[in-house]
Design brief:
heterodimer; A: 388 residues; mainly alpha; Cytochrome-c3 Hydrogenase, chain B; three-stranded antiparallel sheet; globular; B: 185 residues; alpha+beta; Alpha-Beta Plaits; 2 domains; two-stranded antiparallel ribbon; 6 helices
Chain lengths: 388, 185
């Protein structure tokens, strides 16, 4: 009996073969992912290894592409909102906001003041939840299991709060064109007020338990140094840019909603390394608490949805608009072009994670593989957002 | 040399501080809920799948079969089947003919409530657009979190039937049986 075995698959797919063309002889080509636990989803990174050193790395995307931008073309504006919750499961409300904000800008819809404050409060709570998720998962990547238990204990409290107005725990579709779906009830506001001092008391504990821990410090200090220049070239935003000392926050750079009225600090770090990004996120959680506290005090009574809010069969006015918000990972932008029909002619979503990830190829050059994973984690990647 | 030793000491101290936190929480009561064996309390506000709101008489939906929900739904998971007009009796037919001769518009005697309200939960993303667009408020979310089934068909509901089952007006249908028990929980 003759056995003819086809060994073509051992040569790798198109990406691997293309990557291998320029590899040095004797170097190992390794596929990290798409099912690797430290890539948080289905990110695939092809790396060229010399011993344990990463010579070259190339992220490969598209394993979680769900055609959100195409779906925006075949759905009416109001029908597209549930999609936005699915783009980024970490900070779903930021995406909600970017899209409804763009449509509101296009149609010149004035949002009631209370709705703006509700948006600020829920969005900041969601940011805390997102940072906690990153914090727990990042330390899990680095080999510390305990912190995620503490992080999720607090995160569950945020999710409980957000569940009251939104009805869901992760993929929120809460914002509407012209307001929000539901008002924050008294129970919800009481829980938020109770959460703020609770979480404040937890932050020093996080510092004692993890941030000051020498094992973590030795692990993340000095790795993945990103120069501000590189951040600008790759269009990195959010904690990645701020961790490199660039003071850029959409909430301050192009103020929207009620943020100009609120007092908060945009944290930056001059360390430029993974530690810098870590610090920025930890301070950001504190600042989010401050924002929520002020917004709760300033929030007036009133409607949360503008009268005559667009229905699903509403015709979007002709024109184009771009609206950007500060997400947990950076600048979330939505660009909408309408030709006057019910469906938006074209929607372009700007994902911060895409730009932040593109830095990885540059930063990981010459690092140890274990450090490359730590750098990847410090960029706070959410793959569904990158692929859209 | 001394500096190095001091650094090492402070490094070790950071570990001790961490251990103190661990000790504090170790002695506190357990936060983790052993979920399948214990009920969790924080899902009361969770919004589960859709249900029809009944009108004054139980088992009869408030719905007027206008189809706004099906139109609004982003994922096309709703189908409203309208009732056919009832076959008129000979007297009614005669009355209608007379009314027509007078130039009056014949009265529509079709009951407004839907015959079937098909709901495909496998497609639903629980966005609530249907509820917001319902002119009579005939749709609501259930608080049901534990909906589970053995096959895909278990998630295709006829909400009218579900409502009837809830009201106990008809025998429990096997295809919607898990549903009827769910809503009580």
């Amino acid at each position: 009996m003759t056995t003819s075995q086809n060994n073509d698959h051992l040569a790798g797919d198109f990406y691997t073969q293309n990557f291998a063309k320029t590899a040095k002889d004797g170097n190992l080509i390794l596929n990290l992912g798409p099912q690797h636990p430290s890539t948080h989803g289905v990110l695939r990174v092809v790396v060229e290894l010399d011993g344990e050193y990463v010579m070259r790395a190339e992220p490969i995307l598209g394993y979680l592409h769900r055609m959100h931008e195409k779906m925006a073309e075949v759905k009416t504006a109001a029908q597209f909102i549930p999609n936005m919750g699915r783009v980024d499961y970490g900070h779903a409300l930021g995406w909600n906001w970017a899209f409804v904000g763009a449509v509101e800008k296009l149609a010149d819809i004035e949002v009631p003041e209370r709705a703006e404050y509700v948006r600020v409060i829920t969005c900041e709570l969601n940011r805390i939840a997102s940072h906690l998720l990153w914090w727990g998962a990042y330390l899990l990547d680095l080999g510390a299991f305990t912190p995620i238990m503490y992080a999720f204990d607090d995160r569950e409290k945020v999710l409980d709060i957000l569940q009251i107005p939104t009805g869901s725990r992760l993929t929120y579709s809460y914002f509407r064109i012209g307001g929000v779906a539901q008002d924050l009830n008294a129970d919800c506001i009481r829980l938020i007020r109770a959460f703020i001092p609770w979480f404040r008391s937890r932050l020093p504990m996080y510092k004692d338990l993890v941030s000051d821990n020498i094992i973590l410090r030795k692990r993340i200090e000095g790795i993945g140094v990103i120069e501000p220049d590189a951040c600008r070239r790759f269009g990195a935003t959010g904690p990645v840019a701020r961790g490199s000392g660039i003071n850029y926050d959409v909430r301050r750079a192009t103020p929207y909603s009620m943020y100009p009225k609120l007092d908060f600090v945009v944290p930056t770090s001059e360390l430029k390394d993974a530690r810098g990004r870590y610090d920025v996120r930890m301070i950001e959680m504190e600042q989010s608490l401050r924002i929520i506290e002020q917004a709760l005090d300033l929030m007036p009574e009133g409607e949360v949805l503008v009268k005559g809010a667009p229905k699903p069969s509403w015709k979007v006015p002709k024109g184009e608009a771009y609206f950007a918000v500060e997400g947990a990972r950076g600048k979330i932008g939505a660009y909408v072009v309408s030709d006057g029909g019910k469906n938006i002619y074209r929607t372009k979503l700007r994902a911060p994670g895409f730009c932040n990830l593109s830095l990885f190829a540059e930063v990981s050059k010459g690092t140890i593989l274990a450090d490359a994973v730590a750098i990847l984690g410090s960029l706070d990647l959410i793959i569904p957002e990158i692929d859209r | 040399m001394i500096k190095q030793a001091l650094n090492t000491m402070s490094d070790l101290w950071s570990l001790m501080v961490g251990l103190r936190v661990t000790k504090t929480y170790f002695l506190e009561p357990q936060v983790t809920v052993r979920y399948p064996w214990k009920a969790v309390s924080n899902i009361a506000t969770y919004k589960g799948h859709l249900e029809l709101v009944s009108a004054k008489s139980p088992g009869k939906p408030k719905c007027i079969s206008c189809g706004m929900c099906a139109l609004a739904c982003p994922s096309n998971c709703l189908t409203v089947v309208k009732r056919k007009p009832p076959k008129p009796t000979p007297e009614e037919e005669q009355a209608m003919a007379e009314a027509k001769a007078k130039g009056e518009k014949p009265k529509d005697k079709t009951p407004k409530d839907p015959e079937k309200f098909l709901y495909d939960y496998t497609l639903c993303s629980l966005c609530g657009t249907c509820m917001e667009n319902c002119p009579v408020g005939a749709l609501a979310f259930t608080g049901s979190t534990y909906l589970a089934g053995y096959s895909r068909d278990d998630f295709h509901f006829d909400l009218v039937q579900v409502l009837k089952n809830q009201a106990g007006l008809e025998g429990v249908d096997a295809s919607v049986a898990p549903e009827a028990g769910q809503s009580e929980a």
